[in-house]
């Protein structure tokens, strides 16, 4: 399979004046993080650079996380992996220290409805607005890509709306995405999802989270209505569904299961290839 894929890309590069090269990067899921935190106007922001502390210029990627937020190792490693493709990655703590714990299966059940009410859309919008201003004004970076996972998948489309700051987007298994948000998209977007039937093979997420999270997940119906809106808008878009992938697969699949591992690695490349082409 790999030789024919390479051939196909080689064919593309001769067919078009400017060609897209797949960056020679991979997604890391274990090991040490490379970034650092900085407090920006009261918001703790994880920063990851593609090389030693570049301070200004280049292109940025705003990382909009799932409900596990900055404490989750896989999230920081994913941010580092995107940075390794040549971007300044800015990953704000959306929950002011109140991210959902990822390892609380034994603990008291967390009421996700209540947790969500502590983090309303307006508050998340304000934090992301602050991050966009920080990228533009302090880091002096004008082009911003956005990546959004699960919870965060709603916000990249919101900030892809005209004048909101994100220029190019990638989202994976978005939750709570509304038609009006898709309608407002004003830049290239690529989406990674999974077929509905794979929900029950979800790994490593507590039952209370499962119940709340999957109600709103991006299933086949959501995919088709999203594609219909984007097609009608003549948007530049792309969608991929990964079989056998659980909700959350782009961040924390079970890496010992081949189809899940593939879904994480391929969706990472889906994002960086999209940014290489459009950002
Ligand atoms: C950021 O700094 C402000 C002002 O110094 C402080 O009140 C706040 O607790 C800090 N926040 C974080 C997340 O470190
Ligand atoms: C990068 O800069 C930040 C803020 O000045 C600092 O906290 C951090 O230690 C630096 N990291 C490296 C690897 O130099
Ligand atoms: C969760 O919180 C919501 C809102 O506060 C409340 O209506 C609901 O009864 C709670 N659910 C449980 C299982 O405690
Ligand atoms: C997708 O989810 C929506 C909302 O929960 C539901 O109405 C719809 O039937 C689901 N579609 C499929 C194909 O399961
Ligand atoms: C759709 O968008 C492309 C790229 O921007 C443009 O070249 C084309 O004219 C558009 N088509 C229509 C029907 O607006
Ligand atoms: C990951 O998958 C393997 C193989 O199916 C299984 O043995 C293991 O328990 C799974 N790990 C988690 C954390 O679910």
Topology:
Layout: H1 2-15, E1 36-40, E2 43-48, E3 60-64, H2 73-84, E4 88-92, H3 112-118, H4 121-138, E5 144-149, H5 155-159, E6 168-172, H6 179-183, E7 189-193, H7 207-214, H8 220-232, E8 237-241, H9 258-278
Parallel strand pairs: 3-4, 3-5, 5-6, 6-7, 7-8
Antiparallel strand pairs: 1-2, 2-4
The site of one 2-acetamido-2-deoxy-beta-D-glucopyranose has 3 residues, from strand 1.
Structural write-up:
The structure is a single chain. The protein is α/β, with parallel strands linked by helices. The chain has one domain: Rossmann fold (3-Layer(aba) Sandwich). It is built from 9 helices and 8 strands. It has an 8-stranded mixed β-sheet, with helices on both faces. Strand 1 and strand 2 form a beta hairpin. The longest helix has 21 residues. It is globular and about 40 Å long. The two termini are 28 Å apart. The chain binds 2-acetamido-2-deoxy-beta-D-glucopyranose (NAG) (6 copies). One 2-acetamido-2-deoxy-beta-D-glucopyranose binds next to strand 1.
The CATH homologous superfamily is named: Alpha/Beta hydrolase fold, catalytic domain
Q: Helix- and strand-based class?
A: alpha/beta
Helix and strand sequence: HEEEHEHHEHEHEHHEH
Given the C-alpha coordinates, what overall shape results? globular
What amount of the residues lies in strands?
A: 15-25%
Instruction: Give the biggest beta sheet.
Output: 8 strands, mixed
Please name the CATH architecture.
Answer: 3-Layer(aba) Sandwich
State the CATH topology: Rossmann fold
Average of the residue pLDDT scores: 85
Number of domains: 1
Poorly predicted tracts of residues:
1-17, 197-215
Strand order of the largest sheet: 1-2-4-3-5-6-7-8
Percent range of helical residues: 25-40%
Rg (C-alpha, Å): 18 Å
Distance between the termini: 28 Å
Signal peptide: 1-17
Protein name: Dienelactone hydrolase family protein
Keywords: Hydrolase, Signal
Pfam families: DLH (PF01738)
